[in-house]
Write a structure and sequence with these properties.
InterPro entries: ADH-like_N (IPR013154), Chloroplast_QOR (IPR052733), ER (IPR020843), GroES-like_sf (IPR011032), NAD(P)-bd_dom_sf (IPR036291). This is NADPH:quinone oxidoreductase. This protein is an alpha/beta fold. It is built from nine helices and 13 strands. Strands 1, 2, 3, 4, 5, 12 and 13 form a seven-stranded mixed β-sheet that branches. Strands 8-7-6-9-10-11 form a six-stranded parallel β-sheet.
């Protein structure tokens, strides 16, 4: 049982998320991860960033929380969410979860919606009337990106497989593209923002589908993307953008998403659930690249479905 320091809270984890980033950190792929989180072995032995749970204990200097508070948030620096308990400083991005969200739904918000918020609001500065394409619109980030883009007044095109078109339509997408039938980079349409939420299409591939001042966003930091960012950073034309969204989060973002969720602006996008002792199976499923929403793990039977 971890013991909270004076400025920490101990959280009983009810739900956490397994993401492609968790799989990447486990594999140290791309290799630069080793320089940040351990050259020969992981600096932190317990993975997991996004979670929801209940404050069980607080350190003596903590003022923002008390035992019994139901919270959700992220631990982007030290991980540790794939466990029964985690201790984190009270100034970590943690906030009271939406009242109408289950623990699983709240954890899912931290996975998809927080990431989409940084890319669409902060990087793209999305404006009403802009045309936005979300590649991977049925995934955890993509599904929330569709919903956020609609909230900001954009005209949204969702790209997904044929089996997920109705789901993406229910998220509010104005237009749908089945990637197995149509290549959105060659259909003659232009977009102000192309958000590749699954890292499947490169900036050179998408460049001709952007307006003259359009922006390409991706969640995958490949060497090619980094070079594209350098090449376009000083240009007044089309740009390529990647950002480490998890390291730019704060309590204000969680408060904002809580408000939107409680107002009914978000639809949960949970794909599968696994118990904590099935986390390896959860990783295997995420690594197939075919998940359609959040992959949730729960720590105890009493947490399942909560």
């Amino acid at each position: 049982m971890p013991i909270p320091k004076d400025n920490e809270v101990r959280i009983k984890i009810h739900a956490a998320v397994v993401t492609p980033s968790d799989c990447a950190f486990r594999r140290a792929d791309p290799s630069f991860i080793r320089f940040m989180y351990g050259l020969r072995r992981p600096k932190y032995s317990i993975l997991g960033v996004e979670f929801a749970g209940e404050i069980e204990s607080v350190g003596k200097t903590v003022t923002a929380f008390q035992p019994g508070d139901q919270v959700y948030g992220i631990s982007p620096s030290s991980f540790g969410a794939h466990a029964e308990y985690v201790c984190l400083p009270e100034d970590t991005p943690i906030f009271r979860k939406p009242d109408n969200a289950t623990y699983e739904e709240a954890a899912g918000l931290c996975d998809g919606a927080l990431t989409a918020l940084i890319f669409l609001r902060d990087k793209a500065n999305l404006q009403p009337g802009q045309k936005v394409l979300i590649n991977g619109a049925s995934g955890a980030v993509g599904a929330y990106a569709v919903q956020l883009a609609k909230y900001y007044g954009a005209e949204v095109t969702g790209v997904c497989g044929s089996g997920n078109t109705e789901k993406v339509k229910s998220f509010g997408a104005d237009h749908l593209i089945d990637y197995t039938r149509v290549d959105f980079t060659r259909n003659g349409q232009l977009y102000d923002v192309i958000f590749d939420a699954v890292g499947k299409r490169s900036f050179p591939q998408c460049k001709d589908a952007l307006t003259p001042t359009g922006m390409y966003l991706t969640t995958v930091p490949s060497p090619g993307v980094m070079l594209d960012m350098l090449r376009t950073s000083r240009s007044s034309g089309k740009k390529a953008v990647f950002t480490a969204a998890g390291l730019q989060q704060n309590k204000a973002n969680l408060a904002f998403l809580k408000k939107l969720y409680e107002a009914g602006r978000f639809m949960p996008v949970i794909d599968r659930r696994y118990s904590l002792d099935q986390v390896a199976e959860a990783h295997k499923y995420v690594e197939t690249g075919h998940k359609a929403g959040n992959v949730i793990i729960y720590s105890t039977e009493e947490s399942a479905g909560c």
